[in-house]
Amino acid sequence: MIKRLTTRDPDFTQQLAALLAYENAQDESIEQAVAEILTAVRTVGDAAVLEYTRRFDHLQAKSMIELELPKRELEAALFNLPAGQREALEQAATRIALYHQKQLAASWEYTEADGTRLGQKVTPLDRVGLYVPGGKAAYPSSVLMNAIPAKVAGVGELIMTVPTPRGERNALVLAAAALAGVDRVFTIGGAQAVGALAYGTQTIPQVDKIVGPGNAYVAAAKRRVFGVVGIDMVAGPSEVLIIADGSTDPDWVAMDLFAQAEHDELAQSILLCPDLRFIDAVAKSMARLLPEMPRQDVISASLSGRGALIQVRDLEEACTIANLVSPEHLELSVADPNALVDRIRHAGAIFVGRYTSESLGDYCAGPNHVLPTSRSARFSSPLGVYDFQKRTSIIEVSADGADKLGRIASTLAHGEGLQAHARAAELRLKK
Prior knowledge:
By secondary structure, this protein is α/β, with parallel strands linked by helices.
């Protein structure tokens, strides 16, 4: 069901590279379709969105007004939730907000001896678009994880798009939107929703940044509109890497591997452990527990395609491999996990200790579950408040500062052959 590897194999490096390889080449048919959709939305606007919504989502709306959900409907969805669901949603939202409030950046400045003032002004984005999968897919956690940091950052307006194929609406998603303070919700999806947010239409205002997950068409559309608007990231398949020392219940580790694998067939679940007996125990747990899983077909396909149980020499080697893999989620399921934290340089999120399952981070621990994938944790970070704030430099030069800095700038500008730059600085020098 799942590959068994060992770092002692002479070709382990090649085996690992093959395991991590992910074909991210864009499907030409998808790219062509998305290009056509975006062009139509950019040039025609509402009418194009309505046509694609009729074609793809089978919603026969005559105007965009019919595709915008009033706030009262969002509030009703929240009010009518079963008490247990509402409480869980509220508790998760509170924890996510509390964590992200710690990320708020502040403006700063300093003044030099000659009176020159330098600083940085931090401001929130004016308007952000949030794409949320809809229909049978219910991801209220994605609504909270994307919307709450934006609101904490002070974003002026948050516009959410969520497809409702054949009118199928998800109460949990709508309730999460109400709880997170989403300002406007449109029941549109696909590349046409991305285009509407990126370019604006007669009804939907243009946003400054688009965040949120989606299918291949949504991902392709986000790639194409980047530069017109900002985007969070173009995410690859979800990943978990678990470092274990053999002291954790093998059922726990097996289920944590399953939890990642059930996302989709391309998700990746990897275990690193020096104890072969424990690896055997985890494999036995997986074989026993898999038939109990409603999504066992997806889990099985994911594990057999991109999963692996890898025997390492020791935990130090495990950390070395983990840094190479740079996983989205990294679990340290060992007796002394904090001893390993400092050895980890590249991971989207580190789950410290055997009680910290990745699923807790997905829903309610507090840190964001939108994390870098496909080894991009080497240079990228989780979604956060900082993604919804921008920084502007402040420069106020005094007369004395202009004399000092002007001489430096003049010399460098002449060196670059930019005489107008030099002259602009020289005009402000003291005579």
